[in-house]
């Protein structure tokens, strides 16, 4: 199963996102959607599970502050603001204690992140919307099946973002 992951579109759905998610079985949006039309356009490609971000007032259509979905036997928890994977917001910690997840998808920082902590993958695809400073513009594509994440690929949405992805990857780590 192929899953597209994006965040921080801020009302801009780039054609490169649509190309990257062609053939996706499901799409996860980690907030700061910016315009309900972004979700409608993504739903033309595949079913969408989304959370709203602070730009959205934590509400955008059906998207609220958190969401859960199980895909290919993998349990996903979505939130917009995580803080740092080693020190999640208390609300996130409570949610994960109440109902564990295999992958926590988050946004807000515009920083790409992929880290396994105590058996949980923390994933931020970076921003797919308007460029911000020297940060990358990218999405992630996951292959999942039989309860496992088989692969994670970050896809830059422009040439400049290739180097920026490497430069900024996992800057939210505590080390």
What key attributes describe this structure?
five-stranded mixed β-sheet, 175 residues, alpha/beta, 34% strand
Structural notes for this entry:
By secondary structure, the protein is of the alpha/beta class. Helix content is 18%, strand content 34%. It contains 4 helices and 12 strands, in the order βαβαβββββαβββββα. It has helices at residues 15-20, 36-43, 90-98, 160-168; strands at 2-6, 26-29, 48-50, 66-71, 74-79, 83-84, 87-88, 103-105, 112-117, 120-125, 138-145, 148-156. The strands form 3 sheets. A 5-stranded mixed beta sheet has the order 3-2-1-11-12. The model has no long low-confidence stretch (mean pLDDT 96).
N-to-C span: 33 Å
Number of strands: 12
| Overall geometric form | globular
Mean pLDDT: 96
SSE arrangement, N to C: EHEHEEEEEHEEEEEH
> Based on helices, strands and strand pairing, what is the structural class?
alpha/beta
What is the strand content? 25-35%
Q: Work out the helix count.
A: 4
Strand order, largest beta sheet: 3-2-1-11-12
Helix-strand blueprint:
Blueprint: E1 2-6, H1 15-20, E2 26-29, H2 36-43, E3 48-50, E4 66-71, E5 74-79, E6 83-84, E7 87-88, H3 90-98, E8 103-105, E9 112-117, E10 120-125, E11 138-145, E12 148-156, H4 160-168
Question: Can you describe this structure in just a few lines?
Answer:
The protein has 175 residues and is an alpha/beta fold. The chain is built from 4 helices and 12 strands.
